[in-house]
Amino acid sequence: MKLNVSSKAAKWYKDEFGASDGTPIRFFVRYGGFNQLQKGFSLGVISDEPMDAAVTTESGGLLFYIEEKDLWYFDGKDVEVELDEQRQEPVFLYH
């Protein structure tokens, strides 16, 4: 599994979180909501220190990661985070 965050999406997270270089951003599974991968679950985002990071990537000076305990949600798919220019918000693509 790979995680890729575009530079435009990374800038969005940097601005939204008021983050500086080196800030960790975690993608995690939360109960409820709607997502195309796992019915009844959705993806959450938080600035948090890694404990057991399974997948990491750096973009725009930020460290993005997914913990080992949340890998099941992605079902082995690669994750690409892009910025939707029209909505001005991140969009998650799964390959």
Strand order, largest beta sheet: 3-2-5-4
Reported for the largest beta sheet, the result is: 4 strands, mixed
Mean pLDDT: 90
Radius of gyration: 13 Å
| Beta-strand share of residues | over 45%
- Strand tally is 7
The helix content is 10-25%
Number of helices: 1
Helix/strand-derived class?
mainly beta
Task: Give the termini distance in whole angstroms.
Answer: 10 Å
Low-confidence stretches: none
User: Helix and strand succession?
Assistant: EHEEEEEE
What overall geometry do the principal axes of the alpha carbons give? Answer: globular
Layout: helices, strands, pairs:
Layout: E1 3-5, H1 7-17, E2 24-31, E3 41-47, E4 53-59, E5 62-67, E6 79-84, E7 89-94
Describe this structure in words.
There is one protein chain. With 95 residues, the chain is mainly β. Helix content is 12%, strand content 45%. It is built from one helix and seven strands. It has one helix spanning 7-17; strands at 3-5, 24-31, 41-47, 53-59, 62-67, 79-84, 89-94. A four-stranded mixed β-sheet has the order 3-2-5-4. The longest helix has 11 residues, at 7-17. The model has no long low-confidence stretch (mean pLDDT 90).
